[in-house]
């Protein structure tokens, strides 16, 4: 089975971390997010993944130079201009000549979903499209479904106003499509699969849901990207764990690391405290600095304190500075 994986977004919510690295190439527990996703698809029976690329395609091609990720073959479809989710799926599937049932996944979803079960549900219902669904407490920030008899989705509403949600079941970002879904998407146009195509499929009675209670996180938000990393330190995930400190990191014996991940080549000086945080590859934390609930790629100076913040690869927190709920460098609204 083939799959299209959407990895061409701008990752604006994770700026400045995504200023130079596309979101799906950011690490989750020392390995690129995309590698974990492709491996999961492979375990579910996917043999070839078409990466739907747009913004910054080069890091993906460089990371998988022989066109393979584990046992899965990788091919690339680079959009000439961003086509949004639906346009990107159409473009990538057409470029790859997909003409059978296929899987689609958002590149920033971490889940323990069994993809083979999703495909089986799709075939059982003879659906045109089947969405993985998960229940959340506040569904208003997501695509929310109304589920009728026999798992048929009767309504799909993208980001409804709080209080207007038809249920607490949301689109969890992994789908199975028949190729006929592509006929519903115009060529080379910006189309949102969530806003345009799913409501049409629901209206036609051809959209089904596969609700599970599997671990699931949309790692596109800073707090959730951090959680997706830290969840690998405890028993949250089935058979997915990681070491807290990379073997290539240099952590002084007089530093304190609590519920945190220290990435490849990161340096932590004596007396520093790292709590509930992720130091990305190459991060540097000076002596007696404190890093709490933060994501750091750049440098935190001696005695500085940062809390609930993101430091990009070019970011430098000066010695002794206090940074709370901010980004370094500042991120412009554009
Ligand atoms: P934000 O800018 O923070 O919203 O992130 P995003 O646009 O990168 O991600 P979002 O969660 O909005 O999109 C879901 C998935 O679709 C992500 O894996 C994106 O990489 C991908 N995506 C979004 N827009 C495009 C696009 O125009 N082309 C391609 N190829 N992928 C896209």
Description:
The chain is of the alpha/beta class. It folds into two domains: 2-227, Spore Coat Polysaccharide Biosynthesis Protein SpsA, Chain A, CATH 3.90.550.10; 250-328, UDP N-Acetylglucosamine Acyltransferase, domain 1. Helices cover 19% and strands 31% of the residues. The strands form seven sheets. An eight-stranded mixed beta sheet has the order 5-6-4-1-7-12-9-13, sandwiched between helices. Strands 15-18-21-24-27 form a five-stranded parallel beta sheet, with no helix packed on it. The radius of gyration is 21 Å and the shape is elongated. The two termini are 39 Å apart. Guanosine-5'-triphosphate (GTP) is lined by residues 6-13, 23, 52-54, 79, 82-85, 88, 106-108, 220.
């Amino acid at each position: 089975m083939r799959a299209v994986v959407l990895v061409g977004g701008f990752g604006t919510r994770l700026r400045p971390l995504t200023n130079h690295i596309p979101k799906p190439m950011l690490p989750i527990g020392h390995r690129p997010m995309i590698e974990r996703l492709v491996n999961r698809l492979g375990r579910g029976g996917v043999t070839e993944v078409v990466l739907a690329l747009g913004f910054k395609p080069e890091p993906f091609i460089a990371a998988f130079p022989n066109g393979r990720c584990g046992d899965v073959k990788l091919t690339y479809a680079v959009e000439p201009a961003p086509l949004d989710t639906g346009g990107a799926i159409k473009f990538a599937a057409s470029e790859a000549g997909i003409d059978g049932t296929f899987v689609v996944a958002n590149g920033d979803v971490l889940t323990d979903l069994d993809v083979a079960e999703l495909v089986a549900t799709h075939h059982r219902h003879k659906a045109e499209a089947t969405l993985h669904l998960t229940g959340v407490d506040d569904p208003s920030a997501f695509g929310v479904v109304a589920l009728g008899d026999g798992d048929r989705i009767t309504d799909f509403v993208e980001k409804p106003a709080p209080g207007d949600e038809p249920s607490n079941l949301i689109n969890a970002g992994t789908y199975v499509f028949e190729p006929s879904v592509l006929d519903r998407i115009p060529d080379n146009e910006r189309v949102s699969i969530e806003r345009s195509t799913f409501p049409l499929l629901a209206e036609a009675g051809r959209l089904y849901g596969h609700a599970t209670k599997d671990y699931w996180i949309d790692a596109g938000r800073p707090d959730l990207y951090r959680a997706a990393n830290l969840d690998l330190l405890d028993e949250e995930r089935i058979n997915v764990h990681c070491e807290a400190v990379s073997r290539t990191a240099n952590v002084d014996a007089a530093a304190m690391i609590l519920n945190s991940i220290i990435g490849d080549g990161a340096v932590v000086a004596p007396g520093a405290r790292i709590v509930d945080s992720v130091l990305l590859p190459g991060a540097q934390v000076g002596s007696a600095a404190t890093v709490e609930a933060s994501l750091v790629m750049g440098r935190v100076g001696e005695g500085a304190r940062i809390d609930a913040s993101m430091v990009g690869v070019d970011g430098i927190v000066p010695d002794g500075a206090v940074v709370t709920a901010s980004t370094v460098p500042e991120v412009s609204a554009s």
